[in-house]
Amino acid sequence: MVQAKSWILAKHFDGFPKNSDFNLKVEELPEPKNGEVVLEAVFLSVDPYMRPFSKLYMKEGDVMIGTQVAKVIQSKNSAFPVGSHVVSSCGWRTHSISDGKDLTPVISDWPKDVSLSLALGAIGMPGLTALYGVEEVLDPKEGETLLVNAAAGAVGSVVGQIAKIKGCKVVGSAGSEAKVAFLKELGFDEAFNYKTVSSLEEALRKASPDGYDCFFENVGGHFSNVAFQQMKNFGRVAVCGSISIYNDSTPQIGIFPHMTINHKQLKIEGFQDTRWKHKDAESLKRLMAWCKQGKLQCREHITKGFENMPAAFMGMLKGDNIGKAIVAV
């Protein structure tokens, strides 16, 4: 019998999450049936989407949602032999049983010198989100200027690097001097700390006096309102997230930018990576190739210990991480 631990949403978040919102549950797993496998978590992901999705799709008492890289430790399913690794959406669990339908094998020729944790980051969902947001939604042309906020995070850092591969000028906003230095290391043309600039409007104008052709939006709120004003005519905006408002107990009431959108004839599109799921296999190979070629650098912020899942999640929401936030079991 395998002893499994899981983190439960004890209480829906009211404002910023706190330790009392989570409970640790321990249970014994039954033996797998024919067609099933037993999984052991190796790396787990903590992501911003978990905050709003918990309210939309979870009830109190549910296991926290999320993905992990897991190792098959028992198998009665020939498609998933013992010792193979998969990406699973089973949530915050150390061990789980699956019939295989919800599992995605890691790339078959995954290089031995590349950590499997990247299957939760630049060579996984965040990387796909960045790739599809840039290519399918923004479709930047060589020489255009792209703005991305939360630029030192799991998605934003990949967005900027893909835009550079495509010959764009890239401007990034982040929340610390260490993050700004990281963006410079990645090859961003301009980067600034939004927390310390005296004026966000002036910082954006200084970084690109002629304005912006593309805007990859991760933050929402005040940043959006200011950035919209500096978009070029016929500019494109890919709305990936709005982390600045995820923890608000009372919804923000902001400026209504409809006149600006109309006057500049902006195209604003929300998206999720699952829209292009049929392209995932090819896209993951492209991301891996860029990684191996040195065109895509993959920074991770790793927290050790399954017992630290809530702390890693809350730290990510506070912006403690540079790159992808990962928990190593």
From TrEMBL:
Listed Pfam families: ADH_N_2, ADH_zinc_N
Catalytic activity as recorded in UniProt: 13,14-dihydro-15-oxo-PGF2alpha + NADP(+) = 15-oxoprostaglandin F2alpha + NADPH + H(+); hexanal + NADP(+) = (E)-hex-2-enal + NADPH + H(+); (5S,12S)-dihydroxy-(6E,10E,12E,14Z)-eicosatetraenoate + NADP(+) = 12-oxo-(5S)-hydroxy-(6E,8E,10E,14Z)-eicosatetraenoate + NADPH + H(+); 6-trans-leukotriene B4 + NADP(+) = 12-oxo-(5S)-hydroxy-(6E,8E,10E,14Z)-eicosatetraenoate + NADPH + H(+)
Subunit and interaction comment: Monomer or homodimer.
Annotated localization: Cytoplasm
Origin species: Oryzias sinensis
Gene Ontology terms, MF aspect: 15-oxoprostaglandin 13-reductase [NAD(P)+] activity; 2-alkenal reductase [NAD(P)H] activity
Domain Enoyl reductase (ER) per the UniProt entry, residue ranges: 15-327
InterPro entries on file: ADH-like_C, ADH_N_2, ER, GroES-like_sf, MDR_fam, NAD(P)-bd_dom_sf, PTGR1
Gene3D superfamilies noted in UniProt: Medium-chain alcohol dehydrogenases, catalytic domain, NAD(P)-binding Rossmann-like Domain
Organism lineage string: Eukaryota, Metazoa, Chordata, Craniata, Vertebrata
One GO term describing the cellular component: cytoplasm
PANTHER family for the chain: PROSTAGLANDIN REDUCTASE, PROSTAGLANDIN REDUCTASE 1
Protein name: Prostaglandin reductase 1
Family to which the UniProt record says this protein belongs: Belongs to the NADP-dependent oxidoreductase L4BD family.
EC id: 1.3.1.48, 1.3.1.74
Main location: cytoplasm
Enzyme class: oxidoreductase
Alphabetic keyword roster: Acetylation, Cytoplasm, Fatty acid metabolism, Hydroxylation, Lipid metabolism, NADP, Oxidoreductase, Phosphoprotein, Prostaglandin metabolism
GO-annotated biological processes: prostaglandin metabolic process
Cross-referenced SMART domains: PKS_ER
